Amino acid sequence: MKPLLSFKKGSSRFIVLVHFADIVIKFPIISFCHLFKMLWLFGIKRYDKKVLGYFFKMGYRYDRTLRWCLCRGILSNRYESEYFRRNKNQFCWPTHSFLWIINIQRKSDCNSINKEWLENKIKGIVGDDIYRDVHTLCNPENFCIDSENKIKIRDYGSKGVIGVLMKHEHLLCELQADLK
Ligand SMILES: Nc1ncnc2c1ncn2[C@@H]1O[C@H](COP(=O)(O)OP(=O)(O)O)[C@@H](O)[C@H]1O
Ligand SMILES: [Mg+2]
């Protein structure tokens, strides 16, 4: 018998798959572990301005900062839901959000997407723009197949990916799964 719920961990969110309702709920991950590590480091090096400055730096490039530890999942939920709400990009798997604390999507399937095939196809369309977020765009787990056999992206919670989607939306929408 299928379980009622199952769980997955992404790069910035914890996912609950609610099988009986056919939805997934994405909760932001808060990295308390890294937060305490950083705080501990300041305990030892509290007079080191460089360490302190780093901790409060903003942006994804500075991982393990205060913002990274606390907010990266919330930011992912926000980028994903706001982008979908404003643009309704056909390549995106629909996302709905409640205060960016939870994002809700319909459950979808990525089982038959091959990694190399996906990488070649995406690269063929977006070219070097793939390097704006190569980890997301080359991972089949971040995509799914809809009822018309078209590929859709279900993890678009980063500025890099959104930049690529905005630029190449029309071609990406045509990506057909059965061309493999
Ligand atoms: N709509 C969905 N249906 C089924 N599984 C999903 C769905 N969205 C995400 N998942 C699963 O949860 C994992 C993490 O979700 P994802 O949106 O990629 O979060 P993150 O931004 O943290 O990487 C994915 O790799 C995928 O396996
Ligand atoms: Mg992901």
Strand order of the largest sheet: 1-2-3-5-4
- Give the DSSP E fraction (strand runs of 2 or more residues): 15-25%
Number of strands: 7
- Backbone shape: globular
Helix amount, in percent?
40-55%
Helix/sheet category: alpha+beta
Whole-number tally of structural domains: 1
Bound compounds, each kind once, are: adenosine-5'-diphosphate, magnesium ion
- Radius of gyration in whole Å, from Cα? 18 Å
Walk me through the structure.
With 180 residues, this protein is an alpha+beta fold. The chain has one domain. A five-stranded antiparallel beta sheet has the order 1-2-3-5-4, with helices on one face. It has a two-stranded antiparallel ribbon with strand order 6-7. The radius of gyration is 18 Å and the shape is globular. The site of adenosine-5'-diphosphate has 19 residues, from strand 2 and strand 3.
